[in-house]
Design brief:
mainly alpha; 2 strands; two-stranded antiparallel sheet
């Protein structure tokens, strides 16, 4: 018979884990009839009530981040002796510079300085650059970070990852070079939002559960664009009638990228070391266990038994939220705005897209020049390529190809890419761009032959 303590541990494993699955991983329809997850619906409800205050809240967060990071350069005791403040504000000088630039950009944008000008300030504060990042991205992320940070421990702290990891290691390891627990990150990203998956991955990496290599693979190969936003992209190019095959192709490309990219540079060269040694699960079934399910349940209950209660739950959530607010939001504002200025006001991305012309010609893509100009601009923002191609006279096949590639590239700087760069994940800007190019080439190699059959 099961002892009372074992029954209690099972309940503590099952109830929070199922609640986390419902909140983060089960697709539901929102009030508009679009598929999403409960966490996103909660964020939208809160945004609806306090939406008018959110831009100012973002401005204040970025201001505190910049001021405190500048003060932290002097290493005062009140910051260095506080684990939370040290983690939030004590950073390398390059990140301090980014945070200072971010607060300059956000105040100029919020105050509407030079919006109608054609000079540099107007480029920064315009609705398509700073205005877009502040009012469309930051106001969404600031709420998602709170909700996700407070509720992610339901997935992390009560044994779900240990249980899933034991069950799926035999699948995830040979296919994707990652442990079975990464399946939870994958599903969370795919159904919910790429930022949620990256947050989960960061947490696991910093806790010592993922190696450097594993965390790099998961964050760059398992992030995905939500179903709803994929439909928005397809609607932008006026091809919503193809949504079924469109999303199947996106799923296929996502899987193929997750198989290929870990086996080539730069992900292949990442070391298999850990921030905290000894926390990762063993890959083989230890003696005394007859099945992966039995072993997974043992690990889950062991993790649950180590949990220190409601206080730890909320402390971890608050710590995650503050790290995201003061670390990620400034990066998204600075890098996202700068990237959009470059994309919208310079020919840099047109030049960078020129090497794709021979490849697109070889794949017999119509309107090569128009398609090539969108290939690299997706590194700044996922939606921009579809806007650019929709403004041309490109044929439906080309518009379809661009719509697919812009979604499967996924590492755009104004959201997922910025989140990765501002985290402790060991990926720099050059490596991120290289993985972006690899995903682009793989996407083209798959979608173009299919597009020729469709159109």
């Amino acid at each position: 018979m099961e002892t009372k303590s074992n029954a209690k541990l099972k309940a503590l494993f099952i109830i929070p884990s199922i609640t986390g699955i419902i909140l983060f991983m089960i697709p539901v329809k929102n009030a508009d009839g679009d598929w999403t997850v409960v966490v996103k619906i909660l964020a939208d409800i809160i945004s609806g009530y306090i939406g008018g205050f959110l831009p100012l809240l973002c401005v204040l967060i970025l201001t505190v981040s910049a001021v405190m990071s500048l003060i932290a350069l002097a290493k005062p005791k009140f910051i260095m002796n506080s684990d939370i403040m040290k983690e939030c504000f004590a950073c390398k000088p390059i990140w301090v510079v980014l945070r200072v630039l971010a607060v300059i950009f956000v105040w100029l944008t919020y105050l509407g300085v030079g919006e109608e000008d054609v000079g540099l300030i107007g480029m920064i504060t315009g609705g398509g650059q700073g205005g877009f990042v502040l009012y469309d991205l930051l106001t969404t992320l600031v709420i998602i970070f709170v909700i996700a940070a407070l509720l992610l421990p339901l997935l992390l702290d009560f044994g779900l990852l240990e249980f899933v990891g034991a069950l799926l290691t035999k699948v995830m390891r040979p296919l994707f070079k990652v442990p079975g627990r990464a399946a939870v990150d994958c599903i969370t990203s795919w159904i919910g939002d790429g930022t949620l998956g990256v947050m989960l991955t960061c947490n696991q990496y910093e806790g010592g559960y993922y190696s450097t290599k594993e965390a790099s693979i998961i964050s760059t190969c398992f992030s995905a664009v939500s179903i709803t936003f994929s439909m928005v992209v397809l609607a932008q190019v006026d091809l919503t009638q193809y949504f079924g095959i469109y999303y199947l192709i996106i799923c296929l490309i996502g899987i193929v990228c997750a198989v290929i990219c870990p086996r080539i540079y730069p992900l292949r060269k990442k070391p298999n070391d850990y921030l905290i040694p000894g926390k990762a699960m063993p890959e083989t079934l230890p003696e005394g266990f007859t099945s992966s399910k039995e072993y997974g349940l043992h690990l889950a209950m062991k993790r649950t038994a180590a949990h220190k209660g409601v206080g730890e739950f909320f402390r971890n959530g608050a710590k995650n939220c503050l790290n995201m607010w003061f670390g990620v939001l400034p990066t998204v504002m600075c890098i996202g705005t700068a990237a959009l200025v470059v994309a919208n006001y310079t020919p840099v991305f047109d030049w960078l897209g020129m090497p794709f012309r021979p490849l697109l010609s070889a794949l017999q893509v119509p309107d090569v020049a128009a398609a090539a100009s969108t290939m690299v601009v997706g590194f700044t923002d996922m939606f921009t390529p579809s806007v650019i191609i929709a403004g041309t006279n490109a044929v439906p096949m080309t518009r379809f190809i661009v719509a697919v590639v812009s979604v499967t590239q996924v590492l755009f700087l104004d959201e997922v890419g910025g989140l990765i760069l501002s985290s402790k994940l060991p990926i720099n800007l050059f490596e991120l761009f290289l993985i972006f190019l690899e995903r682009t080439i793989i996407s083209l190699a798959i979608v173009c032959p299919i597009a020729h059959l469709l159109f």
